Every structure is written in C-alpha cells, then in structure tokens.
C-alpha cells in the first residue's frame, strides 16, 4: 500500500537540504553546491482550503497577486527564497505579491484551477497533464544557463538491489518517490522502472504489483531510503542525489550529463556528510525544466507587466543582497520564454506509463 509522508512534525527535524529542484544551469555565476536547490517546505496541514486567506504579503500590504508554489524539499522558507524575485516584480509592475506554499503539485494546480492564485511555479509534468484553460506558461525557469535537468534512481551500496530488475525479485520491497506529480521524483523514475521490466501497474495512480511506493518529496525520498533497510531504492531529481554520487558513476551512465547538468561539478561533494555514497541505479534522459505559469482567466491589465518583469529580470533579481543560508538561495537564475510544445517530452513519459494525469489531479 502506498504511503504519503506529509507529517510536518516528522519533516521538521531533518536538516534542511536544498533543492534547486530539478533544474540546473551555467550562467556566469559560480556553481552552487547541491545544497542550493529547494522549492518549498512540505506542510501536510496546508490544504487548498487554506489558500483562500494567505498570510501577509512580502510588500507588507494587502496582496494584489497570489503566488503559490509547491514543495520539492522539506525545510525551506519559500518567502525568503523567492524574496529577491518577488521584490523585483513588485517594483517593476507596481504590485504587491503574497506567496504561499502548498502541500504538493496537485494542490498547486488545484489552487490555480479554483481561482485561488494568479501565478505559480509548477512541475514540468503539470503542463501536459493540465487543461490549457487552467494556466498559461509565462516562461521556463533555467539555472546557470541550462534548460534541462535529470532524474535518478539510487540505492545504498549494501542494498539487495544492484540493478532495477532486481526489485521484481524481492518480497514486498518498498521504493521511495517524491510527490505523485513530480516529473523527476516520480514519473520519470516510474518510467525507467517500466523500461527495466518492473511491473508498476498504473502507478502513481494505484499500487504497483512489484513494490510498495512511498510518496513524499525529493529530500525525504533520499533520507528515508538511507535510513530504512526496507526501502530498497529511491527516485529523485539529480539536484538532490548528485552530491552523494561520484562523478564517475554519472560518466558510466551518460556521455552528456557532464555537459548538460549543473549538478555535475558538485557530484560527490557531500559523501560522508549525512551518509555514505549512493549507488546510481538509473539516470534519465534530459528533462525540460519547470515553468512559471499564470492562471489562464486572469484578466487584469497588470498581468502583462508582471509577466514582462519575469522574462526580463536581471541576474540580481535572482540573488539575495544579504547573506542567507544555502537552502534559501533561489534555485533558478532566469526565466526564458517557453510554450507547451517545449514540454512534449513529458507526454512521452506519461504515455509510457499509460496513466491519465487527470486522475492524479
């Protein structure tokens, strides 16, 4: 039976990691360590109903615009993380923006659908999975110049799994994933399992025959896999796993990872920090990075100014003026124009899984 780890108390005690979140780049700025990649903190108590009354906007006044963002990792203050960009948009478009974190990708899309937010950052998978009448794409978030990122499936070196096919031979093994709608944390890992001959059934919309899935976030997926012997493997974005994987392992799986992924320079940099090296079982093909979106029926003259500010924001709009913790650094360094056609590769993943995304949302 699948499990969803969303209990705030259980997440709070963990050391905050960061997730630049499945998006890496190379823009002139120094490479960040794996710690600079995070979306938002998971809050199991933050239901969609709670989004109707967001707490104070960053500008200190009643918010003109609601911005909702979904978590990829636990332990991050989203308002601190996004402050530079939000303050820039507020200044350029003369608006006030309130930010609110949601408990997951599904809740974020639901908030947009129900008119509870004007702008949002969503998973790449939300694009082919969501009716175009719900949101329009403003642009694709890029990190240090890269518009693509990778998904991984990892395990420990003392695990009974040496290759993905081994999972089918074990008795009721558990496998960790991120949010059910996460591309790099769930959908791509599920697709890689399918390609390896593992029976995933109609997961993540149901329980797979060959293993028991646990859904949480990228950080929790990694942490619990290391901590618990019954969890034999875990799917997560390379932004989360790479610091515990030596570069040589990536080289063995892909000739392009070193050139495309911003995680490559930091690969292996945290081995021995929290735990030993992870074994890389599978590495995906490149995945288009996550977009910023606007509610499709948002009809306000200020919308054009807000979107223009996002697409033309200077480097400084993505950097804090003051020193902040690494996990509070914004994971992306720019937003470039994009449309739904840029996310067609995600549809191939959905087709490979033979799932109906609407059922998940």
Query: Based on CA inertia axes, which overall geometry fits?
Result: globular
Query: What name does CATH use for the topology of the largest domain?
Result: D-Maltodextrin-Binding Protein, domain 2
Strand line-up of the largest beta sheet: 1-9-8-10-7-11
Task: Summarize the helix and strand pattern as letters.
Answer: EHEHHEHEHEEEEHEHEHHHEEEHEHH
Q: What would the average pLDDT be, to the nearest integer?
A: 82
- How many domains, in number, for the residues? 2
CATH class of the largest domain equals Alpha Beta
Per CATH, the superfamily of the largest domain is: Periplasmic binding protein-like II
Number of strands: 14
Q: Give the % helix.
A: 25-40%
CATH architecture of the largest domain: 3-Layer(aba) Sandwich
Q: Between the first and last Cα atoms, what is the distance in angstroms?
A: 20 Å
Query: Main β-sheet, in a few words?
Result: 6 strands, mixed
Pfam families: Phosphonate-bd
Protein name: Phosphonate transport system substrate-binding protein
Organism: Halalkaliarchaeum desulfuricum
General description of the model:
- The chain has 361 residues and is α/β, with parallel strands linked by helices.
- It has two domains: 17-146 and 288-360, Periplasmic binding protein-like II (D-Maltodextrin-Binding Protein, domain 2), CATH 3.40.190.10; 151-287, D-Maltodextrin-Binding Protein, domain 2.
- The chain is 27% helix and 17% strand.
- It has helices at residues 8-12, 78-81, 83-93, 105-113, 126-129, 183-195, 218-227, 238-241, 247-253, 257-260, 302-312, 344-353, 357-360; strands at residues 3-4, 65-69, 97-101, 119-121, 135-142, 148-149, 151-156, 174-177, 212-215, 231-237, 278-283, 287-288, 291-295, 334-336.
- The chain has a six-stranded mixed sheet with strand order 1-9-8-10-7-11. A six-stranded mixed sheet has the order 3-2-4-13-5-14, with helices on both faces. A two-stranded antiparallel sheet has the order 6-12.
- Helix 6 links the parallel strand 8 and strand 9 (212-215).
- Helix 3 crosses helix 11 (302-312) and helix 6 crosses helix 12 (344-353).
- The longest helix is centred in the middle third of the chain and has 13 residues, at 183-195.
- The protein is globular.
- Residues 1-62 have low confidence and may be disordered.
